[in-house]
Write a structure and sequence with these properties.
The chain folds into 2 domains: 8-182, Rossmann fold (3-Layer(aba) Sandwich); 191-409, 3-Layer(aba) Sandwich (Rossmann fold), CATH 3.40.50. The protein has 14 helices and 19 strands. It has helices at residues 22-31, 50-57, 69-74, 77-83, 94-101, 108-115, 128-132, 134-145, 171-182, 216-227, 255-266, 308-313, 331-342, 382-409; strands at 8-13, 35-40, 86-92, 119-124, 149-150, 154-157, 163-167, 191-196, 201-204, 207-209, 231-236, 248-251, 271-274, 281-283, 302-304, 320-327, 346-351, 363-370, 373-381. The strands form 5 sheets. Strands 12-11-8-13-16-17-18-19 form an 8-stranded mixed beta sheet, with helices on both faces. Strands 2-1-3-4-5 form a 5-stranded parallel beta sheet, sandwiched between helices. The two termini are 33 Å apart. The protein binds cytidine-5'-monophosphate.
C-alpha cells in the first residue's frame, strides 16, 4: 500500500509557469491514494484555472481571498489548516518563499502555512538567477531551519530560455519523494552503512589503544534505520552489544579493518553514517610478544589512521554522508568546522565530558548541522534519539536524491 494512501494533502499553487504541471501532480497524488485539496494564490490563477484543478482534484478549489464569506463558511482557513496532513507548495515562487520566510499572512495560502501543524514541503521553481540570489538562498535557509522540507529545484533549460537551477521536479518525482518522506518506510529501497563502537589499536597481544565508546548510539542508529526499512550494514568495533534484528553485522577490531570493511560496502550505499569512535592513531609497530615493564619510561610511536568518514565523503559519487562529533566545548562551532573540513552532508554533534549523557550513557542529545543550518534533537533515550535522527536524515537524503535525479534527467 502506498504511504500516501488516505493522506490529506493540500497542494498550494503559487504564480509560476511550472503551475501548468500541477494537474498531473494532483492526478498522481490521487492515484497514490491521497485526498487532495488545492489552494491557489491570485497569481497562480494567471497560469492555470481553478476549474481545471477542481476537475482533477474532485474538490472545490480554495482561492486566495481570505475574506470570502462563502468560501470561509464552507471550510474556513483554520479548518483547512487542521485538515491537512501535508502542505505541498508547488511551484513555490521566489515571492511566496520570501513571504513565508517573513511569516506574512495576507492571503489564504500564506495564512494556512502559519496556522497549520502539518508538515510543509516546498518545490521552488523560478529563473535560475532568482534562485541563486542571496536573498532567495537566505529565505530558503530560514525555512529549512524551521523544519520545512525543500524538494528541488532541478537544473536544466528553463521556460525563460536560460539554463540552470530553478526547475520544479517533475510531478512523478514529487509524488515519489512525498510518498517516501511520509511513509513509515522512510528509507525503503536504500542501503545504509553505519560504523559503531570503538576501535582497538594493538600495541602487543594484551594491550591496545582505544577510545571510550559503548557502541550504544551506533547500534541504536542501525536499529532505527532497519525500522525505517533500509538494508543496513553495521560495521562495528569491539562491543558487548548484540547486532539488531535484520541488520547485517560485520565485526572488526582495528581502524584499518573498519576502513577496509566500509570501503567494501560503501560503493553501492545510499547513506553512510559514521558513529564509531575511530582511534585517530595506531602504533607504528606491533610487538608480537608482551612488552615487559623493565624501563621507567616507554615510548610508543604512533601513526595516523585513515579518516573513514572523510574518505567516504570524498568518493566520486558519495552516499549521503553523516558524521558524528563528540565535543567538550563550543559544540556547534567545532561541529560546523568539521562539516566543512570533512566535506560531509551532516554532522550530528553532542557534548561530552562534564555532562551525564553521551559516551557510555543510555541517553543523549544532539545538534544536527548541515549546510542549511542547525537543529536540536532534545535529550532522550538513545533509540528514540536515533529514530528522530533517522527521520531527519531520510528527509534530507530524499530531498537530495530528488535533486540528483532531476539533475541527471535534465543533463
Ligand atoms: O575527526 P573526529 O574524530 O572528531 O571526527 C568524528 C567523526 O569522524 C565520526 O563520525 C567518526 O566516526 C569519524 N571518523 C572516521 N575515521 C577516523 C576518525 C573519525 O570515520 N579515522
Amino acid at each position: 500500500m502506498s504511504s500516501l494512501c488516505q493522506k490529506r494533502v493540500i497542494v498550494g499553487v503559487t504564480g509560476g509557469i511550472a503551475a501548468y504541471k500541477i494537474p498531473e501532480l494532483v492526478r498522481r497524488l490521487r492515484d497514490a491514494g491521497s485526498v487532495v485539496r488545492v489552494v491557489m494564490t491570485a497569481n497562480a490563477e494567471q497560469f492555470i484555472t481553478p476549474l481545471t484543478l477542481q476537475a482533477v482534484s474532485g474538490q472545490p478549489v480554495h482561492r486566495s481571498n481570505l475574506l470570502d464569506s462563502d468560501a470561509e463558511s464552507a471550510m474556513n482557513h483554520i479548518e483547512l489548516a487542521r485538515w491537512a496532513d501535508v502542505v505541498l507548495i508547488a511551484p513555490a515562487s521566489a515571492d511566496f518563499i520570501a513571504r513565508m520566510a517573513h511569516g506574512l499572512a495576507d492571503d489564504l495560502l500564506s495564512t494556512l502555512c502559519l496556522a497549520t501543524e502539518a508538515s510543509i514541503v516546498i518545490a521552488p521553481a523560478m529563473n535560475q538567477r532568482m534562485w541563486l540570489h542571496t536573498a532567495t538562498q537566505d529565505n530558503v535557509a530560514v525555512l529549512v531551519n524551521r523544519g520545512i522540507v525543500v524538494f528541488g529545484p532541478a537544473s536544466g533549460s528553463q521556460a525563460c530560455g536560460e539554463t540552470g537551477p530553478g526547475r520544479m521536479p517533475e510531478p512523478a518525482e514529487l509524488t515519489e519523494s512525498l510518498a517516501a518522506l511520509y511513509g513509515t518506510r522512510a528509507l525503503a529501497h536504500t542501503k545504509v552503512v553505519i560504523t559503531a563502537g570503538p576501535t582497538h589499536e594493538a600495541i602487543d597481544p594484551v594491550r591496545n589503544i582505544t577510545n571510550r565508546s559503548s557502541g550504544k548510539m551506533g547500534y541504536a542508529v542501525a536499529q532505527a534505520a532497519g525500522e525505517a526499512d533500509a538494508d543496513v550494514v553495521l560495521v562495528s568495533g569491539p562491543t558487548q552489544l548484540p547486532c539488531p534484528d535484520g541488520v547485517h553485522g560485520i565485526r572488526v577490531t582495528s581502524a584499518l579493518e573498519m576502513y577496509q570493511a566500509v570501503m567494501n560496502e560503501v560503493s553501492d550505499a545510499d547513506v553512510f553514517i559514521g558513529v564509531a569512535a575511530v582511534a585517530d592513531y595506531r602504533p607504528v609497530e606491533f610487538h608480537k610478544q608482551k612488552i615487559k615493564k623493565t624501563s621507567e619510561q616507554l615510548t610508543i610511536k604512533l601513526i595516523r589512521n585513515p579518516d573513514i568518514l572523510a574518505t567516504v565523503a570524498g568518493l566520486d559519487d558519495p552516499p549521503y554522508t553523516v558524521g558524528f562529533a563528540a565535543e567538550t566545548h563550543n559544540v556547534e562551532a567545532h561541529a560546523r568546522a568539521k562539516l566543512m573540513r570533512k566535506g560531509v552532508d551532516m554532522i550530528a554533534a553532542n557534548r561530552v565530558g562534564d555532562v551525564d549523557i553521551g559516551l557510555e550513557s543510555d541517553e543523549n542529545e544532539l545538534i544536527i548541522l548541515d549546510r542549511a543550518g542547525a537543529k536540536s534533537l532534545p535529550r532522550t533515550f538513545k533509540l528514540q534519539l536515533a529514530r528522530n535522527l533517522i527521520k531527519e536524515i531520510a528527509i534530507r537524503y530524499r530531498a537530495e536524491s530528488t535533486n540528483k535525479n532531476s539533475r541527471r534527467a535534465h543533463r
